[in-house]
Amino acid sequence: MLRKGPWKYHHYVRFEPELFNLEQDPEELHDLAADPAYATVLADMKAALYAICNPEDVDRQAKADQAALIERLGGVQIASTMGSSSATPAPVVEKKA
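RE: above sequence
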């Protein structure tokens, strides 16, 4: 996620991004990412995020860290009994090939 001026950009690995104008849509109800009128803003926000980090690399490392933690805790069966998750699930629409 990146915030720059009125824009808020949500980047998801393997899913479509989201773009919101927080001045006009503070509740983030109208995703502008698929609107061709905002293609330049979308590209600029993506480039700004990649200037900070590579989301694919971060995702890969996070998954490796999660797998190591699960292994250290004794496996999925044991880890899944240790309490509820505080994570928010990813969107359900996958990126088109």
